[in-house]
Amino acid sequence: MKRIGVFTSGGDAPGMNACTRAAVRHALARGLEVYGIRHGYQGMVDGDIIPLTGESVSGIIGRGGTILGTARCKAFLTPEGRAIANERLRTFEIDGLVACGGNGTFEGGTIFFEEYGIPMVGTPGTIDNDLYGTDFTIGYDTAVNTAMQAVDKIRDTAESHSRTFFVEVMGRRAGFIAIDVGIATGAEFIAIPERETNFDALCNYMEGFPRPKRHIFIISEGDQYGGAMKFAEDFRKRFDIETRVTILGHVQRGGPPTARDRILATRLGSAAVQALIDGERSVMAGEIKGEVVLTPMRHTWERRAEITPSLCDLVELLR
Ligand code: F6P
Q1: pLDDT tens per residue across span 171-190
Q2: Whose CA is nearest to atom 2 of ligand 1?
């Protein structure tokens, strides 16, 4: 292996830059040449590929977003798009890839490897924490802290007005962010995609409060009941109280990565390059119980990261 390509793909996540920095500097230190592929698979298809030096990644360890850019690339979903991507990589004589991304990135990466045989090692980069093969994904800790701080602020105003707030957090089809934010903010209820909501039980709980009081409920996008707006609407119909909805949205994806995310990203970015050098061909470098673990790339998106739904019961016990 002489020349590798590094790219970030899918939804950006705080810590992607720290991962890029580690991958680039590790590769250079081991005598490899490094190219940056801009905007994920889109840059592979378009040939938007640039040489990177140690200087190119200077000062980025603490920056949110991704200096390489990212995208959700439709062309790469097609055999024709992947054929073009393969030709581009051959033109640039890239013989190994390091990817930082989530489920979609690794599904595409698995198929691409099976079709064209260019070795690819992934690192888990998504705020959702929904990848099999790692305890935590790069960006998750930052997103949870961002959402937690937002809910702390919402609590102040909710308290002042004795209002009921439904705060919707991201996570796509996984409730990891909702559960951790709910626990960290002392919320009274959490709705997640992995578990059916017992709306009547929630109403019974509310009936225990004869006078308006501050309430904070954390709703994961993709929850089975239908999202924060639906909760608020149904509450308005049922109770004579003031409700408000806050959808935190993309604020959870930005900002400087926490120390935990910078360290995880640095460790895994570096491990991914070493894995390529060691001859790994289609794996993801994750961290499990403090150790770097390589998991077949196919498993990362075919299997499910285990959630602990009973933690929702814990918040209800402690409310
Ligand atoms: O996968 C990360 C994520 O932020 C999800 O939590 C969310 O559902 C999705 O991406 C939003 O995607 P987009 O930025 O493309 O709207």
Answers
A1: 999 999 999 999 999 999 99
A2: 11
Task: Fill in the DSSP letter of residue 164.
Answer: E
253 Cβ closer than 6 Å to some ligand 1 atom: yes
In this structure, the number of other CB atoms found within 10 A of the CB of residue 40 comes to 28
Rounded to the nearest whole angstrom, what is the distance from the C-alpha of residue 85 to the centroid of ligand 1? 24
Query: What structural domains and CATH numbers belong to the chain?
Result: 3-139+257-302 (3.40.50.450), 142-253 (3.40.50.460)
| Cα 25–chain centre separation | 24
CA of 265 to the centre of ligand 1 (A): 20
Residue bearing the CA closest to ligand 1, atom 14 = 11
β-strand pairing of 243-247 with 164-169: parallel
At 182, the amino acid letter reads G
Share of the chain above pLDDT 70, in %: 100
